[in-house]
Amino acid sequence: YGLYNDLFFTDTKNGFICGNNGIILKTDDGGETWAEAEHRFAADFYAIWYSAQKKVGFVCGSDGALIKFGY
Is the pLDDT of residue 61 over 80? Predict the structure, then answer.
């Protein structure tokens, strides 16, 4: 996929990765498999955070990008 810059786990099973070229990946099996999020942003993402209770997350990246996403 490319260069990964940050990861965030809400518990031992559920986590997210962000990276360059708009990469946002999600796992629900502790990192055994990853699924790519579908969105229309191509920014390089540097940091990711997710609230399992609200089912919403944020990534920030290049050119001041701050993107809200749901899963």
Answer: yes
Sheet holding 4-9, edge to edge: 4-9, 15-19, 24-27, 35-36
* Tens digit of each residue's pLDDT (9 = 90 or more) over 20-49: 999 999 999 999 999 998 777 889 999 999
Could you give the CA distance from residue 34 to residue 53 in angstroms, rounded to a whole number?
A: 21
Q: What is the mean pLDDT of the chain?
A: 92
Asked if residues 34 and 17 have their Cβ atoms less than 8 Å apart, the reply is yes
Beta-sheet pairing, 24-27 with 35-36:
antiparallel
What burial letters (b/e) apply to 48-63, b meaning 16+ CB within 10 Å? Answer: bebeeeeeebebbbee
